[in-house]
TrEMBL record, chains A, B, C, D:
PROSITE patterns, sorted: ADH_ZINC (PS00059)
Cofactor or coenzyme needed: Zn(2+)
SMART domains registered for this protein in UniProt: PKS_ER
Protein name: Threonine dehydrogenase
Pfam families reported in the protein's UniProt record: ADH_N, ADH_zinc_N
GO MF terms held by the record: adenyl nucleotide binding; anion binding; oxidoreductase activity, acting on the CH-OH group of donors, NAD or NADP as acceptor; zinc ion binding
Residue ranges annotated for the Enoyl reductase (ER) domain, each copy included: 7-343
Amino acid sequence: MQAFVMEELGEVGFLEKDKPEMGPADAIIRPTKGLVCTSDVHTVHGAVGERENLTLGHEVVGVIESVGETVEDFEPGDRVAVGAITPDWGSTAAQDGHPSQSNQALGGWKYANVKDGTFAEYVHVNDADANLAHIPESVSDEEAVYVTDMMSTGFMGAENADIPIGGTVAIFAQGPVGLMATKGAVLQGAGRIIAVETVPNRQELAREYGADEIVDFEDGDPVEQIMGLTDDEGVDAAIEALGRSETFEQCVKVTKPGGTISNCGYHGEGEYVNIPREEWGVGMAEKDIKTGLCPGGRLRLQRLLRLLEADRVDPTKMTTHEFPLEEIDEAFHLMETKEDDIIKPLIDFDN
Amino acid sequence: MQAFVMEELGEVGFLEKDKPEMGPADAIIRPTKGLVCTSDVHTVHGAVGERENLTLGHEVVGVIESVGETVEDFEPGDRVAVGAITPDWGSTAAQDGHPSQSNQALGGWKYANVKDGTFAEYVHVNDADANLAHIPESVSDEEAVYVTDMMSTGFMGAENADIPIGGTVAIFAQGPVGLMATKGAVLQGAGRIIAVETVPNRQELAREYGADEIVDFEDGDPVEQIMGLTDDEGVDAAIEALGRSETFEQCVKVTKPGGTISNCGYHGEGEYVNIPREEWGVGMAEKDIKTGLCPGGRLRLQRLLRLLEADRVDPTKMTTHEFPLEEIDEAFHLMETKEDDIIKPLIDFDN
Amino acid sequence: MQAFVMEELGEVGFLEKDKPEMGPADAIIRPTKGLVCTSDVHTVHGAVGERENLTLGHEVVGVIESVGETVEDFEPGDRVAVGAITPDWGSTAAQDGHPSQSNQALGGWKYANVKDGTFAEYVHVNDADANLAHIPESVSDEEAVYVTDMMSTGFMGAENADIPIGGTVAIFAQGPVGLMATKGAVLQGAGRIIAVETVPNRQELAREYGADEIVDFEDGDPVEQIMGLTDDEGVDAAIEALGRSETFEQCVKVTKPGGTISNCGYHGEGEYVNIPREEWGVGMAEKDIKTGLCPGGRLRLQRLLRLLEADRVDPTKMTTHEFPLEEIDEAFHLMETKEDDIIKPLIDFDN
Amino acid sequence: MQAFVMEELGEVGFLEKDKPEMGPADAIIRPTKGLVCTSDVHTVHGAVGERENLTLGHEVVGVIESVGETVEDFEPGDRVAVGAITPDWGSTAAQDGHPSQSNQALGGWKYANVKDGTFAEYVHVNDADANLAHIPESVSDEEAVYVTDMMSTGFMGAENADIPIGGTVAIFAQGPVGLMATKGAVLQGAGRIIAVETVPNRQELAREYGADEIVDFEDGDPVEQIMGLTDDEGVDAAIEALGRSETFEQCVKVTKPGGTISNCGYHGEGEYVNIPREEWGVGMAEKDIKTGLCPGGRLRLQRLLRLLEADRVDPTKMTTHEFPLEEIDEAFHLMETKEDDIIKPLIDFDN
């Protein structure tokens, strides 16, 4: 089969590979739609270390090709979503309430990390009964593929923020994760949502997803702007959806004592992420800092798919581009340069 | 001043009373808009025991007439909302996170319970800095009066239900509290909202506030209907917004193991509220039962007012009737009979 | 192999059975020590319905006889504890944080319920890597067998009670689960522990495990006694460790507004468990009611075994009797009559 | 009256001051016993900025001299403890569950910060009914004075750590706060407590309060030692009780994915407290970071006093020195140099 791989650090291309094999609890799916993630680009540039001919991609929906002998709830032909994160549910970390950390830090993240990813004709799914979900009839593949990572991760950013009903939240960066954190904040009852972003089409989409105000950091220090908007009180919660220490520091600074900083950005560089000591109340201001990795699993997928079925959210507004699988390298290129106002490129496996 | 009182059990009428006095931390307000609550009717019929010439009412907004000497953040002329529940914030119950229970069970509920209520020309507010909130300019008095009880109580019903994002919730009864629980469920990220109600205009309003499906108990056992809708799996959470043991039992029955029953109904009758033993998993099915009394306090009011300012909710759809203060007895009459499809009667103090 | 079975309702005896078979992720163990549980007696009398020749027992430790091909962390000869509850960790209930409810209400409870129990020469363990734990060298088999149910269940009763550090808790009944709830309350930081019990050797053991005061219900209404001890304020938390509606009602009555009722008793009889309406604050006093079924799983077992290793608790004080497997019917007889001051009978499989 | 003050940066001494005045809800107490805190020394050196003739001290018990007219539960002659933190309970931060942050970051901390402290003949207490607690007869003044800060702060460190029952915790530094965090970990059910400390008498006391193992950082990198002790798995929770970025970083490093870092150290220096990016799982390893400031208030004091009454903890083991008020400067000197194996110096106001 054809697979789009990271040949080595910085190099991508198609490669002929064997169809994956599976164990008794697993499944093989044929992808229909996929999305390219900025973290795929990070991976190519070495964020998870060197890899050789590793298939890329982790956001995909498709049709079941075959299932192992102990799989009970899925069969060939079923239309399914597979989480970007596919935990080992029996691991002690999962038993402890942290399935995304199963077996090791970020251990639930397998695709294009510790095993081949999803940009291939066939994709392996571990523990199919636990890590797949049927896509409801009224939900399109394009909609559904957003639950695998963007909605799950962005909403997690909002859930971890412990936003009180009617509370005020600032969301730093409105890429696809930030946009879904903005929508997630609406779904958690936020009363005031301040989105920090400078790119016009992202600002506009942020408003569509529920942002009440936009802070453009090109107009001045976002900390000053947010403190000004909140009568110097700060926000109940700040969400970091970019992955830079500078932005994280701003989150700590704009959060009121007793508030929460929720990190869902991938911090790819530097030895440290810095907490500003004074604004952190010298370690005593009760500003909790929470982090998370995209929640996976059948139940999570089912619940997010249900939000699509009920038309509570339309993630397809983020699809700015569409490519057949053969042209996926162009999608990678755009995600790297962020040219052409790209937000999310949809990959069509059937054309 | 004129006050609308419960003269004795079952008897209401207007009475001339002295203007209330206040302590150093208190305030006096002149109401502009109020709402009659079904619990006012319960009170008249003896739900809190006998009372003599007790002024009725607990849902009101108005203008500050005067403030005590230690009040810092409010002054005469300010347009304010006052919570139906006005806790003693220094009490140990409040220190323990339960301000509505300050000093005794339901002790934060003072109006028309342990002191004169709000259907009078002047109303006393204890601890003004902690129990009042300024009404934002863009929010009308009619909108604002809904935060004092209906929004706070109904939303609490949804908050206590611990609805997972995308989860399924059943809400029993769509009176004003149930309707706000329905809207609250949307604001907590519910993916599927099943409202149980039989009155047509309430069913319609339930859909407007976010119910995806309506279960009419005149069409058959609501438990069977809900189990049918959910493939016999049950719901993640059930909200009791009526206050009857029978409805509470149904809540326990339709909730899946590990789910939550959130009670916000006022149980006015009977020695017991019954938990069905078997469907409760013989005491081991991890179905939590939570209760609450309308959260009060300045912060709560501010956050709910913010939701109005941001147009996240329009509670005025529930205003089916409007009366000047002089005709409030007609509002009480309708709330008792539920005639004329009444949901909430607005009382206008200025006409 | 020999197995001690429930032949039919009310009848027990030994039976020759085939050695259990196992799947690729499972294990077979040879028990060394076991404990008889009052719930075994309930089962014999029909609490979970009719059964035919079902092997009894669910509290056991032993040595691994064989493991399936995908088991990674255990091998023949290992000394292990197996939880009374052995969840399916991939189930949606487990993904939702409720492994004991996997697949159905109480679905994690398999032994002597939906499959053969542990009073046999060989015992089947599903998902061995997730449901077994190695017993540390310094911990004896007799100590270890208490983690499988008594410590896990009793401690859960205390954990669910949300006892504030220094708080006051009342624990109703001091059978083995109640005694471990008492010890659990100490380990959750309770400042005052009131144990309700009438049997002298249980009262004494309650004190040894940390009870500060004993309320003997033969000395008068326990509600009155507890309210008297607490200046009519009530307790922060009440734990029901008996499984009777009457006791449950007392728990609701003695709990202060804003407090918690934690149920860990098995309610075996009656259509309803009753909540006293008035003392429940007419459904608004914020008295949460929580339930649970013994938490299982490798991590839970490991952590409880660690408490034994660190000498934080000595559960063997509860061993009042000891029998070889051949005489287990005598243990069942005593657990039914509670004669001879029995608390827990230890079963020795090797003699 | 005589007061021990910080005359200016770096200078302390006695000064004659007027007896404090009080408002209607306040009280004046005459201290009997006090403790000097390392943070007093920080204050003298400028940690909270410049001050002129500010009375020092915030840990004290005493006898009520007089109460304001609205105080209900206390009267002259009562023996009372007063929290180091005396929140404004009506503030929005307190309503939000963060009384220690009332009105501003760390705003509940008033003594020797925004008003005169406790090392004087008379001490002012704001909101006496909410911020004082009666000392039980069986509890000595010396015992009781530890609840005002050391027990409340140290226990908070353990409570915020979310230690699972039987879980593993590492506590960095065994000064008085760290020692009480160690004891607090026992009271939260920790199964394994690793204390990091190098001073012999503190190591010894750590063991007495419940540490199972001591890691001496003079024996090598504590991160390596702790990872070695835990089979490279790390701990469920790490508590920072020193207030240095280096120690904080070690806490992040030794905490397993999904674990908690609880900070109760006062970070007095540097622009940043650093989070090590990689060991923090690039912002996705679900290692929560929590902070807190000593919880105050009557309920907290009552519950901690109850633990003394029940002999659950003996804090007086930390009293290594005792001085009459006149010689308090010697206590300050020793707390600065940590000479003579000092842990806590008790101040006796009556001699």
